[in-house]
Design a protein that fits this description.
Layout: H1 5-19, H2 36-39, E1 42-52, E2 57-70, E3 73-82, E4 87-97, E5 100-104, E6 108-117, E7 120-128, E8 137-146, E9 151-160, E10 163-174
Antiparallel strand pairs: 1-2, 1-10, 2-3, 3-4, 4-5, 5-6, 6-7, 7-8, 8-9, 9-10
Length: 175
């Protein structure tokens, strides 16, 4: 009888390879090159959905944004209007340092840290939900991919204690 050990090792290697995560450098050769200063400048509008862990859409939204630069500091003012009538406002202050970004907002715990390469930007931050939504502080892994000079796709997965709770999908349009 043959030993199942080689097959077991292959299975373990396959499972470990599946745990490898994508890095922003995987997009380094993609174009157009993402530049926050160029893309987030002026007026933008976005439409998106929030999905629960099963993929069910639980909220739909429109976001009107105004982006202004003062030196290497971006102020991104976002007004969210949800299909259920809810409203939110988030004002980001983002500092550019080469291809790296550091951001703050009133509902972000500490600092958001991001890096861009090629057409992609990856942010990681902790966002505190409003009290009406439980007040939880959720970990966000937020990816943006610029498709052309006007359109960007954004996917932000959120979790707590390593448990995936859902994601936000948004399409940005530069006006």
């Amino acid at each position: 009888m043959k030993s199942p050990l080689p097959l077991l090792w292959l299975l373990i290697l396959w499972l470990l390879a599946g745990c490898a995560s994508v890095t922003v450098q995987d997009y380094a050769a993609e174009r157009p090159k993402f530049d926050m200063r160029t893309y987030f400048d002026g007026r933008l509008v976005a439409h998106g959905v929030v999905q629960d862990r099963s993929g069910k859409v639980i909220r739909r939204m429109r976001v009107d944004m105004t982006a202004r630069w003062d030196g290497n500091v971006l102020t991104l003012d976002e007004d969210f209007v949800y299909a259920d009538g809810g409203k939110e406002r988030r004002v980001w202050t983002i500092r550019k340092d080469g291809d790296r970004y550091v951001g703050t907002a009133a509902d972000v715990v500490g600092e958001a840290r991001g890096e861009a390469a090629g057409n992609a930007l990856n942010w990681r931050y902790v966002l505190r939900l409003p009290d009406a939504q439980g007040g939880w502080a959720l970990d966000f892994d937020d990816w943006m991919w610029q498709l052309d000079e006007r359109v960007m796709i954004n996917r932000a997965r959120f979790s707590k204690f390593g448990i995936h709770f859902g994601e936000v999908l948004i399409t940005f349009y530069k006006q």
